[in-house]
Amino acid sequence: MRKQIIEYTSPLDALVGTVKQLNIYEIKYQMNSEDFFAKYTQGETADDEEFVEWAGNYQHYLALHQDEQNSLIFRYDSTPHFPNLPSFPHHKHLPNNVIACEKPHIAEVIQEVMEFLE
User: Could you check whether the bond before residue 89 is cis, i.e. omega within 30 degrees of 0?
Assistant: First the structure.
């Protein structure tokens, strides 16, 4: 498989492009990226090229939620590690807190990123 280098013009473009790539894998394997990454990091998946690429894209996605000091800005998540939240398993990570929230639509996340970048 021939690798392609993609250059983005802004963090927002990078986020949108990365989310599109993640969605392709999620549809193909009928698994969300958070669950896949948890299994991947625990050694519960094969190390084939496509899974390595998916894991790399997910790590890039996580990095896009950080500022220049590598501090978390925000990140939506559905990993089931906060069972006491009313929106379980969905929640939102903030710099110093985790709050309940429903699964956001990608347009809402993009709008939130745009507001942060202003």
Answer: yes
State how many domains the chain has.
2
In tens, the pLDDT along 36-78 reads 988 998 999 988 999 999 999 888 887 777 777 877 788 888 8
pTM of the predicted model, to two decimals? 0.64
Whether 53 and 17 map to the same domain: the answer is yes
| Residue 92: domain span | 75-116
Please write down the long-range contacts of 102-110, taking CB distance under 8 Å and 24 or more positions apart: 103/76, 103/78, 104/76, 106/16, 106/19, 109/15, 109/19, 109/76, 110/12, 110/15, 110/16
Q: Are strands 97-100 and 91-94 parallel, antiparallel or unpaired?
A: antiparallel
Whether 70 is covered by a domain: the verdict is no
